[in-house]
Amino acid sequence: MALPEVPLPTATVAGVPVDTRHWIGGTRLASADPDATAAPYFTTHSPIDGAPLAGIARGGAAEARAAVAAARDAFPGWAATPPAERARLLHAVADGVEARAEDLARVETADNGALLRSHRRGVMPRVAHNFRYFADRLLALGHPDLTTRGHTHHVTWEPAGPAALITPWNAPLMLASWKAAPALAAGSTVVLKPAEWTPLTASLLADITHEAGLPPGVFNLVQGYGAEAGAPLVADPGVRRISFTGSVPTARRIARAAAEHLTPCSFELGGKSPLLVLADADPGLAADLAVEQYDNAGQVCLAATRVLVEESARDAFLGHFLDRVTKLTQGDPRDEATGVGPCIHPRHVERVDGFVRRALAAGATPVIGGGPHPGLGGTYYLPTLLTGVAQDSEIVQEEVFGPVLTLQTFPDGDDDTAVRLANGTRFGLAATLATGDRERAERIAARLVAGTVWINCFFVRDLSAPFGGSRQSGVGREGGDWSFDFYCDIKNTVTAPGAGEVARHG
Ligand code: NAD
Question: Nearest-CA neighbor of 25 among 77, 79, 68, 82?
Fold first, then answer.
């Protein structure tokens, strides 16, 4: 489906004015030097109804280069800013996020289609918390000195240099702040390149950092397509860290570009996580956990999209699941009653539907759903559960990134099969278990390949805890001190005994 183009330099979205230009070195810049084939703006559309929202400056190599240069110029001053002052400024950013939370929530929902009530109650408070947490954590950062034969080892975290932050469309401001907050706290300057389908709240964040008093060049924003703006950014030798959240194929491209300058990368990638329902699980809780996977229309990296049920629990689980899922209201994400909103883009819906069509052709059966919403059309896809799927089939192995779950069973008491199915993809982001048997759950959890395992819960996060994926779900961990480790060069200074006396008397 072709969407209308609207080349506009600025826009009002959901009643909120948004400057849609880049933010480089403390200045708003349009794409001044588009090449002959590219327009200086591209259009972002709302997944809610396909309406064009704004013309966004379409960055390329020139803007990426300028932003990295600004970040490099600002780096020595920001790195030398005392931690207490950096922390104060990051709290001021959090204040700005809180003051504009309603604007941010409305613009984010218009741009990416996730539920307005989630943005208001969950996401925007978390964005502010990201800045507050890393500001406070910075002041607590430290390692006890070590002593070897009287020599003292003193460990310090030295800001590494400008960081390129590349984010996807499914949780735009949440992920931008999850990267920017620790990078800035660590003393790195940043260049953020948000996803081209959801560029708007990043621009509001640039305003907020400015109003909070961040010096020019500390926070920079380049808008544009991945191949045009993202690729030159990650290839720039001035970039000293790359933090990327997105798909596996893009991570491979970035890793190749980063190899040239040996730029360290943090990758948070896709998933195909299991939800294991053991026979003694509370079937209501298990069904709640399964239905939760339709949040954000299933466009959540952590989503447990493969339901693996112990055979004797299947019927009770399905009964409770159907009872809940048939009560879900699908529609406009701005309505308080809506449980499932749209997918991000008509092209993405085609991709999601392609997976489902091929699964059905290969013999899968829909328990519910199985296609676009018949009444809403466009970007709205029915919450879907497919049975009759083989472990090695595409629908079980590949990330669909839509409201599509599969159901498989394993024999009663057969933990080996449960673990083999759960671990049987190339991903390893998360796993969820529903069970009444804590010890069995812990035995199984210990055998799962996953960055996070949840037992009888889902999506419970703590910013001090490590977050990341195993196998092709990611490289490295972020969160807590792991984030500081990534954005810093860690230095060990070893002092001989009596060195102070030598200096004083020498
Ligand atoms: P994507 O890889 O297509 O794009 C992500 C970002 O990379 C965008 O900003 C894009 O413009 C940019 N990009 C594309 N090509 C580039 C290049 N050559 N160089 C530099 N940047 C480039 O991913 P997407 O479709 O936006 O997001 C969906 C994916 O993100 C899913 O696989 C999902 O699982 C994953 N994701 C992972 C996590 C996590 O924490 N593990 C969180 C959210 C989303």
Answer: 68
Phi and psi at 37, nearest 5°, equal -95, -15
What's the pLDDT score for residue 503? Answer: 46
Pairing mode of beta strands 384-387, 365-368: antiparallel
Residue 473 Cα to ligand 1 midpoint, Å, equals 12
Per-block average pLDDT, block size 10, for the chain (506 residues)? 52 95 93 60 95 94 96 98 98 98 98 98 98 97 94 97 98 98 98 98 98 98 97 98 98 98 98 98 98 98 98 98 97 98 98 98 98 94 98 98 98 98 98 97 98 98 97 97 97 87 43
> Computed over its alpha carbons, how large is the radius of gyration of the chain?
24
DSSP label at residue 3: P
Q: What one-character DSSP code corresponds to residue 213?
A: T
Q: Which of 268, 310, 399, 478 is catalytic?
A: 268
The pLDDT value recorded for residue 433 is 98
- State the Cα–Cα distance between residues 338 and 365, nearest whole angstrom: 27
Tell me which residue has its CA closest to atom 37 in ligand 1: 269
Annotation: CATH topology of 274-455: Aldehyde Dehydrogenase; Chain A, domain 2 (3.40.309)
Amino acid 498: pLDDT: 81
232 Cβ inside 6 Å of ligand 1 = no
Give me the catalytic one of 63, 108, 265, 301.
Answer: 301
Predicted pLDDT at 128: 98
The response to whether residue 195 sits with its C-beta less than 6 Å from ligand 1 reads yes
Q: Which fold has domain 10-269+469-491?
A: Aldehyde Dehydrogenase; Chain A, domain 1 (3.40.605)
Answer yes or no: pTM beyond 0.70: yes
Q: Which atom of ligand 1 is nearest to the CA of 429?
A: 41
Helices (H), 6-152: 61-80, 83-99, 101-112, 116-118, 124-140
Question: Between 415-422 and 438-447, two packed helices, what is the crossing angle to 10 degrees?
Answer: 50
Q: In the chain, which residues fall in CATH 3.40.309.10? A: 274-455
Angstrom distances, CA of residue 306 to CA of 42, 216, 426: 37, 46, 14
Catalytic annotation on 268? yes
Burial of 81 (0-12, 13-18, 19+ CB in 10 A): middle
- What's the pLDDT at 377? 77
Q: What distance in Å separates the CA atoms of residue 415 and residue 101, rounded to the nearest whole number?
A: 46
Centre of ligand 1 from the C-alpha of residue 412, in Å:
39
In the chain, which segments carry CATH 3.40.605.10? 10-269+469-491
